Amino acid sequence: MNRPIASFLPLLLVFSLSFAAFVPAPAFAETAQPEGESGLCLNEIGIGTGYAWGSLKGESEDMAVYPAFVRFGFSANSLLGIKSSRNTLQLTIEPFVNAVSGSDDGVEAGCALGVRYLHEVSRPLALYLEASVAPMYYSIDSVEQGKAGFNFLDQFGAGLQYRVAPAMALFGGYRFRHLSHAGFADRSNDGINTNALVLGFSWLY
Question: What is the DSSP string of 136-189?
Fold first, then answer.
């Protein structure tokens, strides 16, 4: 597959930006979880993009990845007995469609499940740490992973979230990405490592 990367950009734009039109305006969120609620509680919907870079064996061009994702964050504070409004532990669901550019162009598409810990350093600024794993489809043949097909994308990262309003925030950070199929497929599995910078916008509930 050697399609121009521009052919995937409209898909990414629709995936990321059109979603925003259907996100309801949240009520003002001053605490990590509304008082009196228990269990998992939706407290964030975010959209994001970014840039990731790396290389593939035997390829003359470096690889670039352009993420496009939506994140749903569910506060688990009440389940874990976290009472401080300055600390939030989220369980996250993050569907994504990422354009890949290099000697061959393609896509990464899947849905990440993860955890995200936020600590309010000084209002309106918070530090976050995150980790996730995503079953996904990788559309490029490579020396590392063999034929295109099923893989996992593991991501570990850290960043900052800045509230621009009581119920809206900007975020940006770094992610280390590792792609492999963990032995679930009968093909090579050397793994593909990339580094990513991400940024986006969140509605807080």
Answer: EEE-S-BTTTBSSEEEEEEEEEEEEEEEEETTEEEEEEEEEEEEE-TT-SSS--
* Distance (Å) of CA 97 to CA 29, 34, 113, 166, 180: 29, 32, 15, 29, 17
Q: How many helices (H) does the chain have, and how many strands (E)?
A: 3, 9
Q: What is the per-residue pLDDT across 8-54, written as a single tens digit (0 to 9) for each?
A: 555 555 555 555 555 555 544 444 455 556 789 999 999 999 999 99
Rg (CA), the chain: 18
Rounded to the nearest 5 percent, the helix, strand and coil shares of the chain are 10, 55, 35
3-state secondary structure of 39: coil
Looking at the chain, how many residues does it have? 205
Residue ranges of alpha helices (H) inside the chain are 9-13, 19-20, 77-80
- Asked whether the beta carbons of 51 and 98 are under 8 A apart, the reply is no
Element (H, E) at 109: strand 106-122
CA distance 37 to 78: 8
> Cα torsion for 199, 119, 33, 75, to the nearest 10°?
60
Reported as a single tens digit per residue, the pLDDT across 83-118 is 988 999 999 999 999 999 998 999 999 999 999 999
